[in-house]
């Protein structure tokens, strides 16, 4: 299994592959136990994120549009949509969610999280905030802008956000 994303959830590490299958690594016993959960259906999309959303395990599939920047002869990509799924533990399948309600998802390389919009003034629910974590050329702003924005799960619209210099990966600023 090649993991697309890893999360610590309910006392174990969970990894997801590009098809939506899950590996669970439980480190609580005398020796680690790894089990694989093969899901009923495969999930498409170019990137996968796992999110602990108030006790629910969510899978977010990100869809990208690729093109070649002829000035730099590099492939650049832009996010065009997201799909969100909740894991059904009984049926071992991902169930698609049409609405996040008051939840907001913040996606990034190995650091995705869920928040309640009502806890943050000016924040609207049913939104996905995303960072540019898929293309070295995009990150360096070569061949185009950074792919950073807000996706409205309700109507599928994307609002691009300005990009500023990134924090080093070992610094995580506090939200408070």
As residue ranges, the low-confidence spans are: none
| Radius of gyration, CA atoms, in whole angstroms | 17 Å
Per DSSP, what share of the residues sits in E-state strands of 2 or more residues?
over 45%
Secondary structure: helix percent: under 10%
Compute the separation of the termini in Å: 37 Å
InterPro entries: F-box_BR-signaling, KIB1-4_b-propeller
Protein name: KIB1-4 beta-propeller domain-containing protein
Pfam family, one: Beta-prop_KIB1-4
Organism: Salvia splendens
Topology of helices and strands:
Elements lengths: L4 E5 L2 E5 L5 E5 L6 E5 L9 E7 L2 E14 L4 E15 L4 E5 L5 E5 L5 E4 L10 E4 L5 H4 L9 E4 L5 E3 L16
Parallel strand pairs: 9-11
Antiparallel strand pairs: 1-2, 2-3, 3-4, 5-6, 6-7, 7-8, 9-10, 11-12, 12-13
